[in-house]
Amino acid sequence: MREHDTETVVIIGAGLAGLTAAATAAREGRPVIVVEAHAAGGRARTDELSGYRFNQGPHALCRGGEAWRILRDLGVPHRGHRPPLRGARVVRDGKLAGVPVAKMGSLVRRLLTVSAASWAGRSAEEWVESLGRSRDLPDLARMLIRVTTYVTDLRGMPADFAISRLKAARRGVSYLDQGFASLVEGLWSAASAAGATMRTRQAATGVSGGPGGWEVTLASGEVLPAAAVVIAAGSPATARELLPADPGWPELSRPVTAACLDLGLRGPHPSVVIGVDEPMYLACHCPPGDLAPAGGSVVHVMRYGARDAGLDRADLERFAALAGITDDQIVAKRFLPVHVVTHVLPGPDAGLAGRPGVTVPGSPGVYLAGDWVGPSGWLSDAAMASGQHAGLLAAGAAEQERTHPRAA
Length: 408
What we know:
Elements: E1 9-12, H1 16-27, E2 32-36, E3 46-49, E4 52-55, E5 61-62, H2 66-74, E6 80-81, E7 89-92, E8 95-98, H3 101-113, H4 124-129, H5 136-149, H6 159-168, E9 173-176, H7 181-193, E10 197-200, E11 204-210, E12 213-218, E13 223-226, E14 228-231, H8 236-242, E15 256-266, E16 272-275, E17 280-286, E18 296-304, H9 309-322, E19 330-342, E20 366-368, H10 380-403
Parallel strand pairs: 1-2, 1-14, 2-10, 7-16, 14-20
Antiparallel strand pairs: 3-4, 5-9, 6-9, 7-8, 11-12, 12-13, 15-18, 15-19, 16-17, 17-18
Helix pairs in contact: 1-7, 1-10, 2-10, 3-5, 5-6
């Protein structure tokens, strides 16, 4: 058995959570090795098709959220723009219409007076139904909840969480001009500048106790000794397979999904079209972003909640046509039948506090990070908040192992 490494932090996974953990631990002075089964980026990668660059469906960075703060702390630049809302329309009863400004104002006034905490333990649908018997405010509230959370199962989501997200949405979001891959590149630049190294296309198969610390086994058979390990490899099921012992989690099998149609267009483009009484979204992410050839545009169309691939694709194409997009405008097209938005939808009873924590009971020195980990944030905010927390704890564990190593 090889001698235990008393300083190194091994991070499994190179998405936003893993790269945040890597940059954080490396800046604390710890040697860091990142292992990734595929290419870096995970669901934050940006792919190019016929000169158009597509995120994995529509992505947005919440202004002033946890990710925004952490990027500033790490010195990672990000250039973006607010959604182009001029000319925005809604669809109701299958027809395009202008945004109902007066009714939206009424809903906002209701939001300003409601206390999220007073709805703890109840579902978002219960709060929506409390807005009145008329279709107007409840349908608009459902629409806004979908836009701010990507969730369409309002009976299965906490009301206090939904209300808090709607209130936070007043800060706005940013569509990144270079795509979400710019965050991947920036985070890795911060991590590597602090001394971290990465090994891509090398899958980890398990974490086990080694002499006085931990060992990460790779698919190749190689074993990496470590003082601390951060598992940021995607879903709870993947993490469970890697953990040295069963964490005893309750059932965590409620992912939030979407069906996405990514379009590269020439010529005119719609700005934003959102379904009021159906879970549909369409928005132009470029221009002014730099994701298309000169004169081109990138439009993302999405159905909240993936179902049957054939039905969903037909719905997405119908919605794009309703928004005014014609076949002769389309230069590049990509369909994602089931895109995982986040791996766990917390239930009304426990809310975000019911998600697994960063620390793993019974496995000191092993930590978790991901969009389903910890009580803070949602989507990229949750991934990066848990990544930062895990990176700090892992760095501290590595320091403790260096100065006070456990017995073999």
